[in-house]
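User: Round two. Same drill as before: sequence, then structure, for each protein.

Assistant: Same drill it is. First protein:
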Amino acid sequence: MVRTENPPQIDGFLNDTVWQKAPLMESFKQTEPYWDAQASLKTEVRILYDNKAIYIAARMFDNEPDKIVRQLGFRDSDLNADDFSIEFDPYNKMQDAYTFHITASGVQSEWRRSDASYDAVWKSKVQIDSLGWSAEMEIPYSAFSFPKTEIQNWKIQFYRQIRRYREIDSWIVGKQFDDNDIQYWATTKNMYNIKPPLRLFLQPFVNANILTSKNENGEHQIAKNIKGGLDLKWGINQSLSLDVTLLPDFSQVQSDNLVKNLTAFEIEYDDYRPFFNESISMFQKGGLLYTRRIGSRPMNYDLVENQLDTNEIIENNPYSSPLINALKFYGKLSNGISLGWFNAVTDNTNAVIKNIDNGSIREIQTSPLTNYSILVVEKDFNNKSNIYFNNASTIRSNNFGNANVSLLGSSIYFGEGNFNVDISGAISSQHSNFQNIINNENGNNNGFQYDLSIGKVSGKWIYSLNRNLKDKNYNPNDLGLNHINNQATNFFTISRRLTTPIWKILNFNQTLKLSYDYRLSNQKPTNISAKYSYSLTSKKHLTIWGNAEYAPFNVYDFYEARMADFYFLQSPSLNFEINFSTDYRHPFAIDWGYVQKYETDFHANELSFYLKPIFRIGNSFYSKLRSDFTFNKAQRGFAQIYENEPLFGKRELNIFENTAEATYMVNSKLGLTFRARHYWANGEYQEYYKLLNNGQLGDIVEVNNLNNDFTYSVFNIDFGLQWEFAPGSMLYFTYKNEFLQETNNADMEYFRYLQYAFDDSQSNMFSIKLIYHFDLNSVIYKK
């Protein structure tokens, strides 16, 4: 590494004379499709550094520059484009690394091995010329952390993708299928006297919303709101960081993909809120953190209607608890100890009740002031091995109930990193208030679980033996997510990977999984199955993947009946799935999938398939459409509680889901997005049965005045404009439309329901948000 006193101008032209002082790095080799083969095209890289940043110049030679693939897209998008990346491990611990990535269209991305959502502000420019394409990058030291030492010894690596060849080249090629490739990277020399800078970033924002909707009386409502808040990121020292969000607003995030839930378990939805995606992975071990718990639907939301008098109506019942603030404190010390503290506070939530006789108003509390917290301590040793402790706590005011979960675990690598043992154990407890903790009055609310896995993780063959056990009281769900307890889960997996392309096959991976699960309290089997999975890619980049699963025995389902003293006996089943995906390099590509499920006892046959065409027009426009269809003609499942016993039904179930997405980019900083989704689920109950004591369904039951038929329909539109008008500074304009309706009428056809999506009962939201990024180090440096 060469120090410079005159940093280059970041314009992508590589014509600054200072670059000639830097040594040339070349001789790239392929990692895909042909491991360790000579790269098809030449790549040259040079690096400089000063007291402010490191600078990278990359020349990607190409004798057909007009064929360089350069799709435009938003920052951090997975694009159909040539690209170049630099990766480095500043601590030389070979356990984590930063990646800075630039496409031939000038779109930036960055991530860490330990945190795919890592975000930073840095400079780059690209140019296309007769030699191919070139890139210049300026990565300030404020964008990442590194040790406070006189001499810096970083692990470093470069990658290039030639998209039209589906080729990935790297500067250093290590051992194929090694689980830790960082150990093979080069180490920097002659890099010294760098002082870690102030890493303090402020992002104040202002947001204005207009929401139009109808209340339960059919009256139009218009709500206007203007609010401000602040996001702060502070690198406390070279090891530790603090992220804070104050009075956040996430109204711009994508609408949820709502579905009709016929299962005994809650639906797990993705979290699109940026703060709860960035630098969050260390807090999620063991399922202790499900971020959708924070700001979720108030815990007593559904109980309000039962507390109304005959002359009262619900004026307002908020669907989410307001988030006051949240913070993340995290980092890794020089001795290999990682520390993390996540904390979030949501405010009281109240339903507003109106007396229709005299107009008086009263409130019913649906959720209290709540504090969510997770503490993490982790110690690395012997390359990638570690030991960790996580503690998750939920504290609520007004005796709404508190919870605590503690997790201790370790991951140990041995045999030159080819083998691994993972073991962890957790204890959960729930309390009505702090006095219960002091008096140790927990009743039977303490629960525990453990995970154990041992296997081979590198090479052509990989395999593992796994066991998970949860007792009947284990419950992390105040902040985490767990669906099933009182169960032991056991499975063995073995996989084989193709190391060298043969014939017309580029990649071929196969996995066999054998499972045996049982209920702890009575040893009854809940799953006995064998599953074969595969993935094959041809040299023309047609990918085929899928699986076949066979469950040959009756097994016990202790949840479908919704009552503790009942179980449902699931019959043997056979499932088959196949998917196809064509080459994404072409302007038109298509994905297609088919799933068939068959149960022997009831002759229940479920068929589902999807079709997803993908279009690109030039480099600026991208669109994908997806249609999913599910048909089940004889599904047996829970219908309702009837005469204090579970009543099951035979139902015909049809689900149609259509999604359209489009992106138009004006340039790499400005673009428009559109997303529309319609989900329609229709269920008609044809027969009812009582559930017998042996788990079988009895004879057909004649019931009067029961109607569990349903048609559930959701329609969403998300339209947005996004403009990065300065590094890290954003302007968003968002329009959202939502229509949701559910009835007990199963006769209404799909297209008739679709027309309701455009009536006046929709809700509409218009939002504009301005975020300005302040890098205090840059301000100080300029002075």
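Second protein:
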Amino acid sequence: MKSILRNLLLAATFPALLSTAMAGLLGVNPGFPKITYNNASAVALTYNASNLTYAVSAVPTAIQFAPAEAPRIITGTRTLELRAIVDSTGTLVSGVPGDDLVITGTITRVVLGVTNVYSGVLLTGEVSAFGFLESGVTDQYDLLFASTGGALAAFFPGGIGLNVTSEASTFSGSFGTNFNGRAKGNLGSVLNDTIAPSITCPADIVVECHTNVSGVSGAYVTYPNPVVSDNLDPNPVLVSTPPSGSFFPLETGLSFTNHIVTSVVRDASGNTNVCSFIIRVQDTMPPEFADTNNPVVTSCDVPLVVTNDVGQCFATFSFYRPVAIDSCNGLQTPIPASVSAIDQFGATITLVDLGGGLLQGQFPITTTGSNVITFTADDGRGNSSQAQCAVLVVDEEAPSMVCTDQTGTFKPILTNALSCIEGKFGCNLISSNETIWFSSVVNTPSGYKAPFSVRFFDQQIELSVNGSNLVISVPEAIVHFSNGLAVATTTFTNGEWVTVSKPYCYDNTFLSGVGFDVPFNLGGCRSSKCHYSRCDNRHHRPHNEEIRATWCGRFEVSKPGVVVNWAWSAATYTQFSTNYSQLCVKPIDARTGSAYHNRDNAGTPECFKPYVVAGARGDGRWSKCGDEGDKFTGALTHFRKANLGVGTICLGAVDFDPPMVADNCDGPVTITSEPPSGSLFGPGDHVITSTAVDASGNSNQCTFTLTVLSPLQVVFDTPCNDNLNDNTCQPDVGFNSMNCPDDPSTPQHVTRFCSGDRICHIVRLLDCNGQDVTAEMAPYVTVHIDVTEREGTYHNSFLVNDVPQNYSWVGSPGSIMVPICGRFQYNLNTSGFESGTINGPRFFRSCVWVDYNSSPGVPVGMEDVILESR
């Protein structure tokens, strides 16, 4: 439990304290005569917070007139009544009207044989001081009274002192609420005051230096008076030095100065007491930047933004050195700040003092962060202020660009390119309640042995009729040409057509298909050729266009060099299934007499044959009107060689050099081109737009012309009859570096010779579609031959000797092949070639490459052959 002391005199000095009492006992020590009293009632002592009345009602029990004299019992009508006005802070305000203390009873005293009787009102008094101590359930109080009358008044000439002990007390230290308790104690005469008044100084005080007087820094300090009290004197005299409100200086160069304040209190009896406390004047407040005209001070809530010097990667930025003010010197002398600057990477920016407080530096362009100016002001007492200002330097200059026209070529992409074949449906009407079944087949010429697979993907069919286009997506498909299977199968699994064909199948093989529910009537044009016996007049509407369909997709063949033929057809059905696994699609055509033969073609939905209205054969041929068997609406007019999916498309990836770019800064410049380098281009001139963007986002553009030369495939006829499609895969490693390695995905044929033999090199040139264009291109191209001796494997070797090319009879100086009879030929003379390479790590390689006479040195086709000497 906390103890709370309270003193009447303190309360008189500070009447505005809070309701929770913070004083103590007066220290009353009653002398003789001494009267004891008691009351065990729980309300013997009460305090009424409403009217501020403190009251004690008790019974005086005995009196002892002198220390050596026995106590005498008080008889008769015995009362002790005490009343006082105590405010909510525990401070004595006044007495009550009439006597504040009244004691009654009867006392009989015999002195030297003389009997003295004191009866009635024994003692009265006016209260002059009040003290208390809250200490749990038993509290203490003491009071002083001036004696005003009663039969015993002569025994109390110096006043009355009274102690109260309150048990079972409800006092909690607050005079803001009612409380009560028991009451017992004693009272007696108070004489000969030798007790010094009490004095309690305030705690040490710390103040900030805030002013300057005649050049001296310091602070004016008003402090609270010490708390004083006296056992008798309600108004003891207090003197403090230096007085409150004085100026307390801060010594020069120090961060603080301690000043001792001494307080002396004297009561009416001349008793004194003293206390002291410290007032510390300190300077812990940093200076303040308040230069309202300086942009690096007032405008730096957001970064300052400046633009770069023309042609430079920096901005020359000038600013005045910031100054600060300090309250401790009375705001009289500005404090110049020290200034430094760093760039966005932390490197120091040199600042030059131009005089008059003007600073200047070269601030780099910022891209990922900001330049930072840091300024610091120090007041000389260990206090400093630091502030920063971010300076963003914006680069507003675009990079310069130089575009130059370029020439390039490509190896044709003969896989995964888009193939498209168009077909017509004739003049038949296809009704909205019917379904069109589109199916495609592949056929591989003889000589391509299984296993290999053909994948058909990115497929879509576009129907065009009466100016409207309908687009149909087709599921992906794959055909596995496998060995050792007795029966061909077609399944629809996980949204993909999967056909497994028999080995050495030279018939049409089903590839892919899709059913299309016709949303409205299609076609029905007038036709002079078709007169179906089963057709009514609705099949011959004169004003509708013929239906056209274009099927496009991409091929991927797992085995290099395989050539596939592709065709598609369509048929209409009155009833069909959306569950493709229930169509019973026929996987392959079957020749007459074959175990697989029936009259239906590959791709026929066998389970829905009864519902066919008209259609086209699976091999893509026309079905004429009046033919026996199924009736067809028309399909592809002829087979189209797909050549691994290219169809009639000739294009490939072409790389080109980016434009020359210069920027005023050393930062990265991003160059993009549209179309980008490596895009698919066909032969001809293409406009390339290049954009350069520097690290600050400034951009510039230029354009140039990319002339793409049509590639020519070099195909050996002799000496090794290399695979005709050796050039159909992606470009060989080193194509552009003239290294001419053989394509590792194709068979490598080796020609063996004896040193001195003549080896006849004969090549043909093919276009993108595999057509022989040797004769047509001969006047416009040059075909070169380069022979080297190498060491390593055929697919991974290094140069040993660059062998001089000599020819016998057929050839041209400078290692040039000559056109003869629609071919290019060069008879290589091997005299002087190293013998026996067939038994060692070395070998010879003939590299044949072709360029256009209009663009010499730009290879547009290349192939090699290996030569081993015996």
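The chain has three helices and 63 strands.

User: Perfect.
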